[in-house]
């Protein structure tokens, strides 16, 4: 977790990346294995109350690793981090474009 917030995350959770990776790997494996290994847990977090996060994470995982395949999050983490970084840059650029458009509309309305 070399990205933003890692020192804060480690400070407030008291868990380092080294400690979290094996658990995160197991959790992802549970989700990309068909059928889902812990149906009750998957069902709970697929509810609207939890923003359907298990459904989102399952789709996200299956885009990156084959269903019922072997995955090694530690090996794949640099690429995942790069993907997150690229997505954040894309979102920031979209927001900047939208802001510039709104500013142009506002200037036009005042003129």
UniProtKB/TrEMBL annotation:
Highest rank taxon of the organism:
Eukaryota
Give every Cyclin C-terminal domain span: 5-58
InterPro entries given in the database record: Cyclin-like_sf, Cyclin_C-dom
Q: Which Pfam families match?
A: Cyclin_C
Under which name does UniProt file this protein? Cyclin C-terminal domain-containing protein
Q: Which organism is it from?
A: Pholiota conissans
């Amino acid at each position: 977790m070399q990205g933003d917030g890692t020192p804060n995350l480690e400070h407030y959770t008291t868990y380092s990346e080294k400690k979290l990776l094996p658990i995160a790997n197991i959790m992802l494996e549970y989700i990309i294995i068909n059928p889902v290994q812990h149906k009750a847990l998957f069902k709970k977090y697929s509810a609207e109350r939890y923003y359907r996060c298990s459904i989102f994470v399952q789709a996200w995982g299956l885009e990156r690793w084959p269903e019922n395949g072997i995955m090694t999050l530690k090996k794949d983490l640099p690429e995942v981090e790069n993907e997150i970084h690229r997505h954040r840059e894309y979102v920031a650029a979209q927001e900047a474009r939208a802001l510039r458009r709104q500013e142009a509309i506002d200037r036009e309305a005042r003129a």
